[in-house]
C-alpha cells in the first residue's frame, strides 16, 4: 500500500519496507511522555526511577507478570484495531467504548444462558454474540453516515451514552444476578471461561490473530482495497466504481465487531460477568493506541502491550514507590497529545493543498 | 542597475531526482521570460525557490540585487514579487472578494472593511481588464474564472516581478488572448514577467526571451525571433517533435455509443445539457468543441454514469446503460479519462501501481476472487510505466509525487490498457507538456485505429481540429453543429463556439 517502497534489483515486486522514520514519532512520544511524567513524580517527592523500575518489573519481569500484562492488553489491542479499521476508511469511530460495552454484556448473557455446551462451542458462541452486538451498534452509525450524511463522530458519541444506559439497565433488571445486593450479571458458566495457558491468556492470541487477519485483509484483498480507497479519496473511489456507501457501512460493521469482541474477551477472560463499573475507558484507550500504532494493524500490538503493561504494574508501583496508579492515565494523556500533534500538523498541511483549495497539477 | 531577478546556481534535490541542477537565470524589468520544459523538468521547483517557498540545497537568488531569505515568502512578496501557482491557492467556500483580500484585509477597527474591499477589487479588475464578480463563491466558478481570481490576487500588491506557473492551462482561447494582452501591458509598464506554459504559440506571441529546462538543467536560452515552435519543442524534449498529428482516414464502423435526448443539470441544479443527441462510431474520433462551461463537463459525467440524467438515454452497442453507476457503465464498455484527475482520476497517496488498476482491482488477473494478485499489479505497472513513458524512479512511488503530465499519463495508461469499445477523453492533455501531448495524441489515434470509438472533449480547438474525424460544436448546452473534419473551418467553428449563428 502506501508504505511500499521499491528495491532496485527486483523491479516487479513490491517490497514492504519498514519505514523507520514514521515509527520514530510514536517511540519519541512515549519517551518524552515518560520524561515529563518523571519530572512530575520528582516534584511530588517520589523517585521516578524506582517507580518506573517497579512498573516495568511487575509488568514484564516474570511469566506471571507478562500474563497479567497480556490480559490487560487484549481488549486494548482489539479496541485499537477497531478504531484503526475505521480510520483506514476515513471514519473516526469514537464509539468503540459503546460497541465494546454491548459486546461485553452480550458475552455475559451468552456465557450464562447456554448451558451444557462444551467450552470449544460455548466460547465461540459467546465471542460471536459480542462481536455481533458491537457490529450492530457501529452499523447504526455507518448507516446514518452513508444514507443520511450524519457525521460518525456525532452518532458514535451519542450511541456511547445510549448503549451504556441500556446495558446498565439490563444488568440491573432483566439480566441481573438473582437475589444479590450488587447490580451485576451472574457469573458466566465454567464452559464459557476462556482458558489461560501457563499464565498466557487465550484472548490475547485471538486478538493478535485478528490483527494479522485485518492487516492481510487491508493489504491483500479487494475488500481491503475498497476500504483504503474510500479512506484516501472517496471521489476517486466513486469514479472507480467502488460503492462508497457500502464500504462505509461495512467498515463500521467490521470496526464495531472488533470492538464488541474486545468486550466479549474481557468478560470471558477477566471479569466473568458484566457490571456497570467494568470496562470503563477501554474503548477510548483504543483511540490513543490506534494513533500510537500509526493506524497500522500490527503497530497497534506493541502500543497495546505497553499500555497494558503499565496498567498491570500500576498497583505494585504504588506499593514500591508511593506513586499513584493514575500515573498511567497521565502517561496516556501525554502520549495522545504528543502523538497527535504531528498528525494534526500533517493533516492541516495536506489539507492546505487538498480540500482547502482546488486545482490540479503539481 | 542590477537585474530585477538574478538566480545563481540553484540546485534542489528530492529523493531520487535532482529537480534543479545548477540553474542560473536573470530577468530584467519590463521583460517577459518564458520558462519551458517537459513536465517534471523542474520549472515549478525553480519558481517556488524564487518565491521563497522552498529552500534549495545550494545557490543564491537576488531580487533587485539583494539576496532573498529562503522560506521568507512574506519578505519576497513585500519586495514586489507576485506568484500565480499552478496549483490553485483559493479557499473554495469564500467569495472572490474574500479570497482576494485574504492575508491582507482592509480593516475598520477589528473588522474587515467589506465595502472598501469590494471597491478595491472592482478598481483592480477594471485596471487590468480582468472582470470578476466580487460576490461569487469560488467553488461555484468555472476554473477559468478561478484562475482569473488567482491572477488578480497576485497583481493586487504593487508587483515588480510576476510569476505565472501555467496560467493558461484552463483558459479558453479568448481568455488566453486577454491574458496575453495583460502580460504585454504589464511588461510595458516595467514589470518583469516569468511565464511557464506548455503552449508554444503563446510563447511565440508574448515572450522576449525563452529559457528551456530539461531534466533539471538549463539547456538553452533563445527568443521567438531566433526560432519557431518546432525548434522550441525540440529544445524541450531533446529530439524533434511532430507537432502535427499524423493520422489516416478513419475506418468508420457501426455505432458503439448513442446519446439520445440527454438533459443534465449542473452542480447548481441549472439545466446545462439541454437535449443532446450524439452517435459515435467504431473507429472514429468524435471531437466535442466548445468554450468551457457550455455543458461539456456535465455531458461527459452523465455519459459515464457519474451525474444524474434528467431525461434521455446512453446506449453502448445498443444497450441502455444505468444512470449514476460508474462501475456499471465502465463494465458496459466505456473507458473514461476524467477531466479532474486529482479528484477522480487518482488516489494521490496510493502507489502508481495501485492507481494503474484503480477501476480493475477486483477483476482478473489483478484479483482472484477476494484476493488481490499483487504480482500481476506490479507486472502491469512495469509494463504501463514503460509503454506510457511515465517518468518515475519506481512504479511503487506514490502518484502524488509525480508531476502533472506524468499523473495524466497514469490515468491515460490505465484507461487505454483495457481496450474497451468506447473511450471518453475529457481534456486529456490539460496542463501537459508538448512531448507528453504528442504521446497522448498518438495513443488516442491508435486506440481509434484498434477499433475504439473515441469521444474527445477538449477546450483546445487545435486539439479537436487535429485529432477529430467529426466535430460536434457545443454551445449553451446544445450541439449546434456536427461537421466532418475535412470540411471544418477554424473560423466557422470558432463563431459557432461563441454562440454566433453561421
Ligand atoms: N515535494 C516534492 N517531493 C519530491 N519530489 C518532488 C517534489 N516536488 C517536485 N518533485 C520532483 O521534482 C521534479 C521537478 O518537479 P516540478 O518542478 O514540479 O516540474 P515541472 O513544474 O517542470 O513540471 C519532478 O521529478 C518531481 O517529481
Ligand atoms: Mg509544474
Q: How many beta-strand runs of chain B?
A: 24
Structural class of chain B: alpha/beta
CATH fold topology of chain A? ABC transporter involved in vitamin B12 uptake, BtuC
**Structural class, from secondary structure content of chain A?**
mainly alpha
Bin the strand percentage of chain B. Answer: 25-35%
- Major sheet of chain A: order of its strands? 1-2
Any idea of the CATH class of chain A?
A: Mainly Alpha
**What is the tally of beta strands of chain A?**
4
Q: Uncertain segments of chain B of ≥5 residues (pLDDT<50)?
A: none
Shape of chain B: globular
What would you call the quaternary organization?
Answer: heterodimer
Superfamily at the CATH H level of the largest domain in chain B? P-loop containing nucleotide triphosphate hydrolases
Q: For the report, how would you describe the main beta sheet of chain A?
A: 2 strands, antiparallel
What is the count of structural domains of chain B? 3
Bound molecules: adenosine-5'-diphosphate, magnesium ion
Percent range of helical residues of chain B: 25-40%
Specify the overall morphology of chain A. Answer: globular
Describe the structure.
The complex is a heterodimer of chains A (362) and B (502). With 362 residues, chain A is an all-alpha fold. Chain A has one domain (20-348): ABC transporter involved in vitamin B12 uptake, BtuC (Orthogonal Bundle). Helices cover 70% and strands 2% of the residues of chain A. In chain A, the strands form two sheets. A two-stranded antiparallel ribbon of chain A has the order 1-2. In chain A, strands 3-4 form a two-stranded antiparallel ribbon. In chain A, a hairpin with a 2-residue loop joins strand 3 and strand 4. Chain A is globular, with a radius of gyration of 21 Å. With 502 residues, chain B is of the alpha/beta class. Chain B has three domains: 5-237, 3-Layer(aba) Sandwich (Rossmann fold); 243-333 and 420-502, 3-Layer(aba) Sandwich (Rossmann fold), CATH 3.40.50.300; 345-417, no CATH class. Chain B contains 17 helices and 24 strands. In chain B, strands 6-9-10-3-11-12 form a six-stranded mixed beta sheet, with helices on both faces. Chain B has a six-stranded mixed beta sheet with strand order 18-21-22-15-23-24, sandwiched between helices. In chain B, strand 4 (58-63) and strand 5 (66-67) form a beta hairpin. The longest helix of chain B has 16 residues, at 173-188. Chain B is globular, with a radius of gyration of 23 Å. Chain B starts with a strand and ends in a 5-residue tail after the last helix. The chains are: A mainly alpha (362), B alpha/beta (502). Chains A and B meet through strand 1, helix 8 and helix 9 of A and helix 10, helix 11, strand 20 and helix 13 of B. Magnesium ion binds at residues 43-44, 86, 403 of chain B. Chain A: Keywords: Cell membrane, Membrane, Transmembrane, Transmembrane helix. Chain A: InterPro entries: ABC_transp_permease (IPR001851). Chain A: The chain crosses the membrane at residues 20-41, 100-118, 125-147, 153-175, 196-218, 248-270, 282-307, 327-348. Chain A: It is a multi-pass membrane protein. Chain A: It is found in: Cell membrane. Chain B: Its main location: membrane.
